[in-house]
Amino acid sequence: MYQNFFGLHEKPFSIAPDPRYLYMTDQHREALAHLLFGIGDEGGFILLTGDIGTGKTTICRSLLNQLPDNADIAFIVNPRLSVNELLQSICDELGIAYAENSSIKVLVDNLNQFLLESYASGRNTILIIDEAQNLADEVLEQLRLLTNLETSEKKLLQLILLGQPELNDKLAQDNLRQLAQRVTARFHLQPLSFEETTAYIKHRLHIAGFRGELFSRAALKHIHSESRGVPRLVNVICDRSMLGAYTKDSIEIEYPIVLDACKEVLGRDGSRAAAQRSSSLSINISDSNMAWVARLGILLLLIGLGFVMFSTDFLESVLTIFQQSRGKTMAVMSSLSSMLVG
Predict the structure, then answer these.
(1) Which of 93, 100, 259, 342 has its CA 20 to 30 A from that of 48?
(2) Predicted local distance difference test score (pLDDT) of residue 131
């Protein structure tokens, strides 16, 4: 809708994992290097973890573009499968024939035969599973058993598991420790910094054909604050902001437009920044209350002294001064000190 308005040849902030739009920060380069190293290591498990939307799938698809022609890939995107269903899905991805009611043993035997033939012809087979934190324990154990398919020289199947941080917690379980010991490379993706978020946004705009500065610095800061540096959320906020700018006939995107976009796409009133300001206000109010508690303590102490001194006039004077001061603690203390000295 807004592409022509901004002079773009396509939408720059699609959430589809398009490798063309992959912005390689230092940590993304390191993550890709870990994947390439793990594949070159010829065996074991490779783990790539990160929070939702940090770019795991995009990096993996970039990896696929760099693999040699002799690699056969099985990519499983729906891991909520039984052991039998997983083996069937692997066979389907690799083009391995099997009978409809094949047992686990038959499926594994068929897969093993395929792997041996591939190895003999100089081909490598790689199994990639996305959202691997959703794999059942018995399925993970079956994957471990698949890594036992080997020759005297190398493993016949290489596995890459992509998942959220819960995947590491799952692999730390005692019943899966044998699988965890076979992890040969692992990397965890962190959210983007403000500088990386800014560069990421400009990179995607450049790929889509935009030249120049579109978002103000205040707008960029708010995008980073609200997205917490998660690329997928950055995309959603930027896309909605560009739509908002288009409807307002504005070729520049300032903070108010981004603020409105965040309210729409994040499904809440206000923003995280506003919430932080509210939190600061609460802290200030709390500090004020603490000051009043301190003043009350001083008053009670002086009243106690008054009772000890059996001076009714003293007590009345203290109460009068405190009421008149209405929070001017230093004035109260000064006046009372003068009275005591006098």
Answers:
(1) 93
(2) 93
Q: Please, are residues 234 and 201 in contact by the beta-carbon 8 Å criterion?
A: yes
- Structure-model confidence comparison of residues 306 and 93, the more confident one: 93
Give the amino acid at 43: G
Region 115-121: mean pLDDT is: 93
Spell out the residues 6+ positions from residue 212 whose beta carbon is closer than 8 angstroms to its own: none
pLDDT tens per residue, range 206-258:
999 999 999 999 999 999 999 999 999 999 999 999 999 999 999 999 999 99
Collapsed DSSP state (helix, strand, coil) of residue 111: helix
Distance CA 322, CA 23 (A): 64
In the predicted model, is pLDDT for residue 306 greater than 70? no
Residue 299 has pLDDT above 70, yes or no: no
The partner residues of 71 in beta bridges, in order of sequence, read 124
pTM, two decimals, is 0.71
Summarize pLDDT for 80-97 with one digit per residue, the tens: 999 999 999 999 999 999
- Give backbone dihedrals phi and psi of 76, rounded to 5 degrees, phi first: -105, 120
Which tokens sit at 282? 């609460």
Q: How far is CA 144 from CA 115, 168, 175, 183, in A?
A: 16, 15, 12, 10
**CA-closest candidate to residue 128, choices 98, 103, 93, 97:** 93
Query: 103 — phi, psi (to 5°)?
Result: -80, 170
Give the helix/strand (H/E) hosting 73: strand 71-76
The CATH number that domain 26-189 falls under is: 3.40.50.300
Which class is 3-15+193-265 in CATH? mainly alpha
DSSP at 46: E
Q: How many Cβ atoms from other residues are within 10 Å of residue 304's Cβ?
A: 10
Pairing outcome for strands 183-189 and 157-163: unpaired
Helices (H), the chain: 3-6, 26-40, 56-66, 83-94, 104-120, 137-146, 166-171, 177-180, 194-207, 217-227, 231-247, 255-265, 272-309, 312-325, 329-341
Distance of CA 331 to the CA centre of its chain: 53
